[in-house]
From TrEMBL, chain C:
This is Multiple sugar transport system permease protein. The keyword Transport applies. PANTHER family: INNER MEMBRANE ABC TRANSPORTER PERMEASE PROTEIN YCJP (PTHR32243:SF18), MALTOSE TRANSPORT SYSTEM PERMEASE-RELATED (PTHR32243). The chain crosses the membrane at residues 20-41, 76-103, 115-136, 148-171, 192-214, 249-271. It is found in: Cell membrane. It comes from Paeniglutamicibacter psychrophenolicus. Its main location: membrane.
Length: 421, 307, 285
């Protein structure tokens, strides 16, 4: 008697659990979309996913959101932070699950636009806001003539040099050309205990280091329609990079060196030259304020100015299109001069809006970088094959430091880019 | 060993030995079955489905392509080297783990003051996250800020820091050391348990027969450990085969695919080439290989006890 | 076990040799975590100084262990609570589900038993990295996205295998006569399981608990995509928040990692003796 009862209970329990699970939506394919009620007066919730630039990024965004929500009670913003390493993987999973973020901060955007996933800039920001971006940046946000991204930050690379080491090695002039950089780095490598030049070709930022050198020879990665990696100018630059490695004027194993630890050796005073960013200035201030260093333009083949410029952007995935008005409110609020300059200067980046540039024109830290912006070469982010090219640089470019010939490596990268068309 | 119905008919249903039909078993295995069906089946099926699709780099499902992705996977020139690395990785890690664990368990089975504390210390790498343990190793062997490199230079073995993780071969070696390090605790404990279950009389008898130490170990102790080893090796094979974090952290920065195993290659295809379809196909291949290995293993070693 | 009464009649010298060797073994296994602990006591700038320092030069920064609970990057206290809740509930669920299955398969023959046992072990072989795409879709459909319940179910389902297999062999090693005697007394199967068998296989349950708990505690791939609210995320995901684009708060990464080890070690300390007993009963015929 008792035995039967117990079994009955178990069977009933299992059946109930099964029912519960099936009722939770196993039957149909209706995914997402159950949280956006768009009846008048209702609160619109925006999902926002952004990467961490620094320790302070989360707090900065939280402040922006808090003030924005206080002024706009009908919009709520859910902030999700991710590390740079994970953000694109998480984004892809979300796109596949039809739950792409309403506001997203990232580098690549063209392939999203090419597949019609992004809302045009004019749908997510007022005319005044769109018109305030510096034209050169706005141009980089267009696919087939339509602007999608709202440029969030800009940054340029500059040559950081260690004055103490230069003095010890008897180098008096800050190098302006490749040959001068080579010889100065060689002097430091030979005459001091430190390495001359830091070349990070590991998978963190091999594409960045490469474009700095390519730009120094008038090269680039191509344009919106064609990825062109194995051009004569680029090959010549890659071969010079290889010469730097072969002559032993760089740190050891450049092919597996990441930018962050390499810049840290510079900050610790153990490296003669390295290409750094505006943030590097802040890091030196907190981590080794005693460092005697200077900032100069990038060394190029002929001495003509050129550098790598990077811009990241805010964009909005359309989803069902019902949240565009709320996104617009947020973007207009965020890009207003005071809110935006506070954000961008706290993060230590260069502003992309005209009103922001005016406000920050007097900033001492940013000045050398702002001066370099006009000669900056950017990644071809408007080319849908850029993402694949970027990945190929990250996993393959380091091979020039391990003995593979430079033209072969560039050919291999070009092949990966062509395969992604 | 599947369905043996004939003798079952004759057995009485109320017998403690016979559960009878599958239906009678359902209340007992049902919850486990339900959990697996509800949670595991869909994502596993979705992975297989994705492996037959063409998916854009963004994640949009474009069209079905049948087995094209598998054709691409098998035509990949990098694949032979990757499979070879995988074999080396699994065989070396599991073999060394088992050998070291056998010795360590033997030692931890001997009584001495403080033994409990030593056992606790051996357990720590099991409790700690593999990602963090690997990260500490990675930074310790860094040529610039690595404590381990500094130690080697301080005691005069090296003139200056050596980039252990900068080239394929030494980096793979470091990864193998880390994998062995984190696999030892579980394996040691399983074997230790096996050692304790060996009856003292068996050992006494061997000693009476005049067997020497190694003879006793090889012909008396080791056969008794078979059951413990079977479980330890099975779990180790699956875990080592599917391990991603160790190699991703230690060999991740090395350009090209010369230090990749199947698992890290899947990760690179997903992360850098952004191909969910190809990486799904690779995962299916990976899964099939593990499945076959485990099936052969279960069939020959029979770690599951029969009723 | 007292100092000199040893079963293999070891001499005093041998015992001392063993203590020295034991010390060496313990040191070897603890070194990486000592490095971690020392790192967590350094200042942010000292961790990456060149050359590195063995000990914190500017004095041990115990304050790191206070400030790490209130960092701008992630709410560590909430993350710890999430980890505990998810791991405990998932472990409990595994026990509830695995115990009857392990008991029944060890005690009774039924058609499909081998298939069932193999299906269970298959769940262990799937790799989470590629499964996350499907899990994400599924949890959205089940309306469990960004909930603890989702991660409890996922952790339980993917860690079921070990618990079922190890407990299966424990139940199998309990003599059947025990069951038969009880059934003659008129006890039902569930009663036999709870009153007669469970006390006998207690070590096996402990073993299953440890395995399940440890792997839930360190789970990362699924939590990363399923849990989007910072407060809901476990420590494994929270750690990645300290990694910025160009700099990382290593002192907190190390500190949080040390704190994350402690609860698991405490669990081990409480049940170390039973774990040994447990494994021996299960793994050996």
């Amino acid at each position: 008697m008792k035995k039967r009862n117990l079994r009955g209970v178990v069977v009933a329990g299992a059946a109930a659990a099964a029912l519960l699970l099936t009722s939770c939506g196993f039957g149909g394919g209706n995914t997402g979309g159950n949280d956006d009620v768009s009846s008048p007066g209702a609160v619109t919730t925006l999902d926002m996913m952004v990467p961490s630039y620094s320790d302070g990024t989360k707090a900065l965004w939280e402040k922006v959101i808090k003030d924005f929500e206080a002024a706009n009670t009908d919009v709520k913003v859910n902030l999700e932070m991710q590390s740079w390493e994970n953000i694109e993987g998480v984004l892809k999973t979300k796109i596949q699950g039809n739950k792409a973020p309403d506001i997203y901060n990232g580098g690549a955007f063209a392939e999203f636009a090419a597949e019609g996933l992004l809302a045009p800039a004019t749908d997510i920001a007022s005319e005044a806001t769109v018109a305030d971006f510096q034209p050169s940046f706005a141009e980089n946000e267009k696919v087939d003539g339509t602007q999608y991204g709202l440029p969030l930050i800009a940054s340029a690379r500059a040559l950081f040099y260690n004055k103490t080491l230069m003095e010890e090695a008897g180098v008096t002039e800050v190098p302006k050309t490749w040959d001068e950089l080579h010889d100065a780095a060689k002097a430091i490598s030979d005459k001091t205990k430190s390495d001359g030049y830091g070349m990070p070709l590991g998978n963190e930022e091999a594409q960045g280091e490469s474009l700095i050198w390519f730009a120094g020879n008038g090269g680039n990665f191509g344009d919106a329609t064609n990825i062109a990696v194995d051009t004569p100018a680029n090959v010549e630059a890659a071969e010079f990079m290889q010469k730097m490695v072969k002559d032993g004027v760089t740190q050891k194993d450049p092919g597996a060196t990441q930018r962050t630890p390499m810049l840290n050796t510079f900050i610790q005073g153990k490296l003669g030259f390295a290409y750094g960013l505006p943030q590097t200035v802040g890091q030196i201030k907190t981590e080794n304020p005693k460092l005697e260093y200077g900032i100069a333009p990038v060394a190029t083949k002929s001495g003509e100015p050129a550098t790598l410029g990077v811009a990241d952007r805010l964009m909005s995935f359309k989803n069902d299109g019902s949240k565009a008005a709320a996104v617009k409110k947020f973007m207009d609020y965020f890009f207003s001069a005071d809110v935006y300059t506070d954000w961008v200067s706290t993060e230590g980046f260069l502003p992309t809006t005209m009103s922001g540039s005016e406000k920050l024109a007097g900033d001492e830290t940013l000045k050398p970088f702002l001066d370099m912006l006009p000669n900056a070469v950017f990644y071809p982010t408007t080319n849908p094959a850029w993402n694949a090219t970027d990945g190929a640089f990250k996993s393959l470019m380091g091979q020039i430091a391990t003995g593979k010939s430079a033209p072969d490596v560039l050919k291999e990268i070009q092949a990966k880019a062509d395969a992604a068309k | 060993m599947s369905v043996a119905t004939a003798p079952k008919r004759t057995a009485k249903r109320s017998s403690a030995r016979e559960g009878g039909s599958f239906l009678a078993a359902l209340p007992w295995i049902g919850p486990a079955l339900l959990l697996i069906l509800a949670i595991v089946v869909f994502p596993a099926g979705y992975m297989i489905y994705n492996s037959t699709r063409k998916i854009s780099q963004v994640g949009t499902d474009l069209k079905g392509v049948g087995l094209d992705n598998f054709a691409k996977v098998f035509a990949d020139p990098a694949l032979p080297r990757i499979l070879l690395n995988t074999v080396v990785w699994v065989v070396v890690v599991v073999a060394f783990t088992v050998l070291i664990s056998l010795a360590l368990a033997q030692f931890l089975n001997k009584p001495f003051p403080g033994r409990t504390l030593v056992r606790m210390a051996v357990i720590v790498p099991w409790a700690a996250s593999v990602v963090m343990t690997t990260t500490v190793f990675y930074y310790a062997v860094d040529p610039n800020y690595g404590i381990f490199n500094k130690f080697l230079t301080d005691i005069g073995i090296l003139d200056e820091g050596f980039g252990f993780t900068k080239n394929a071969v030494p980096a793979m070696a470091v990864a193998i050391v880390v994998a062995i390090f984190v696999s030892i605790p579980f394996t040691t404990y399983t074997i230790l348990a096996g050692l304790q279950a060996i009856p003292n009389e068996t050992l006494e008898a061997a000693r009476m027969d005049g067997a020497n130490r190694w003879g006793t170990y090889l012909f008396v102790i080791l056969p008794q450990l078979r059951g413990a080893l079977a479980v330890a090796v099975l779990i180790n094979i699956i875990n080592v085969f599917n391990n991603l974090p160790i190699l991703k952290i230690i060999t991740g920065a090395i350009p090209g695919y010369s230090a990749d195993t199947l698992m890290t290659y899947i990760f690179k295809v997903l992360q850098f080439d952004r191909r969910l379809d190809i990486s799904s196909a690779l995962s299916v291949v990976n899964f099939a290989i593990v499945l076959v290995i485990v099936a052969i293993y279960v069939k020959t070693v029979k770690p599951m006890k029969e009723v | 076990m007292s100092f000199l009464v040893t079963e293999d009649r070891a001499s005093q010298k041998t015992v001392i040799w063993r203590m020295v060797a034991g010390l060496g073994v313990a040191a070897l296994f603890l070194v990486p975590y000592a490095v971690m602990l020392i790192g967590s006591l350094k200042t942010r700038s000292e961790i990456l100084s060149i050359p590195p320092s063995y000990m914190p030069r500017e004095g041990a920064q115990w304050s790191n262990y206070l400030t790490m609970w209130d960092t701008p990057e992630t709410p560590v206290a909430y993350n710890l609570i999430s980890t505990i809740v998810i791991s405990l509930c998932a472990t409990l669920l595994v026990l509830l589900v695995a115990t009857p299955a392990a008991y029944y398969t060890a005690r009774f023959k039924f058609p499909g038993k081998m298939v069932f046992m193999f299906l269970v072990i298959v769940t262990q072989m799937l790799q989470p990295a590629v499964l996350t795409a499907g899990l994400f879709k599924q949890m959205l459909a089940m309306n469990l996205y960004d909930t603890w319940l989702a991660m409890i179910l996922i952790n339980a389902a993917f860690n079921l295998a070990f618990a079922v297999w190890i407990m299966h062999s424990f139940f199998a090693s309990v003599p059947k006569e025990v069951d038969e005697a009880a059934q003659i007394d008129g006890a039902g199967k569930l009663r036999v399981l709870f009153k007669i068998n469970l006390p006998l296989v207690w070590p096996g349950i402990v073993t299953a608990v440890i395995f399940t708990f440890v792997s839930c505690w360190n789970e990362f791939a699924a939590s990363l995509v399923i849990l989007s609210t910072a407060e809901n995320q476990p420590l494994s995901v929270a750690l990645t928040k300290f990694v910025g684009q160009y700099s990382t708060a290593w002192q907190y990464v190390f500190g949080v990692s040390i704190v994350a080890i402690i609860p698991v070690i405490v669990l081990f300390m409480l049940i170390e003796k039973r774990l040994i007993g447990g494994l021996s009963a299960g793994a050996v015929k």
